[in-house]
Amino acid sequence: MKKSHLVSIAILAIIIIAPTLNAQRVNRTFGAGLQTTPFTYGLSAKYGVSDNIALQGIIAPFSVSVFNASVSLNYYGGRFIYRFPGEINSGVVLDPYLFIGLGVMVLSSNFIEASSVTVIKSYMVGAGLELILAKKIGLSLDVSYGKQDILGLIAVNSTAIGGGVHYYFN
C-alpha cells in the first residue's frame, strides 16, 4: 500500500475515533473525509455556510503505476452545494442536495523515456443524498453530468456516480 493511502486512512481513523469531538445538530458546519468524483478519489472538507448552503473542497493526490510506466490523475476542485435539510428521526437524517462543481484534473505520465503533463479543466452539475448517522457520520451518494475540456481541443461529456464519507465536527 502506498504511503499516501496509509496517511489518508490514518487521518480518517483519527477523525472518526476522536472521543472529544461533537457534531452540530442541524447546521453541519465542518466535515472532513473522503470523496469520490468522476475518475478520482481523495480527501474532502465541507463547510456549512448555512443550513442550506455548503462549500466543499476536494483534493485527490493518489496515483497508480503499471509495469515500467507511471500514470497519475490528480483532481483539485470545489463544489457549491444546496441542501434540503431533513428532519432528525432516531438519530438519522436524510439530506437531498444539488451541486455545481469546478475543478482541474492533472494527468501525468512517465513511460520509460517520455513524460508528459496534461491539465484538464472540468465542471459538473448533479444531485445526491446524504445520510447522516448518529449526527456525526455523513454517507453521500450522487449522480453528476459533467464536461472535461482537454487543452481546449477535446471536450468529453460524462455522467458519473460519486460518493463520500465525512465526519462532522462542531
Explained architecture:
9% of the residues lie in helices and 67% in strands. By secondary structure, the chain is mostly beta strands. The chain has an 8-stranded antiparallel β-barrel with strand order 1-2-3-5-6-7-8-9. A hairpin with a 2-residue loop joins strand 6 and strand 7 (114-133). It is elongated. The chain starts with a helix and ends with a strand. Mean pLDDT is 80; it is low at 17-27.
Q: Which percent bin holds the helix content? A: under 10%
Radius of gyration: 17 Å
Cα shape: elongated
Number of helical regions: 1
**Mean of residue pLDDT?**
80
**Low-confidence parts lasting 5 or more residues at pLDDT below 50?**
17-27
Distance between the termini: 33 Å
* Tally of DSSP β-strands: 9
What structural category arises from helix and sheet content?
mainly beta
Spatial strand arrangement across the major sheet:
1-2-3-5-6-7-8-9
Largest sheet: 8 strands, antiparallel, barrel
Q: In what range is the share of β-strand residues? A: over 45%
Question: Helix and strand string, N-terminal first?
Answer: HEEEEEEEEE
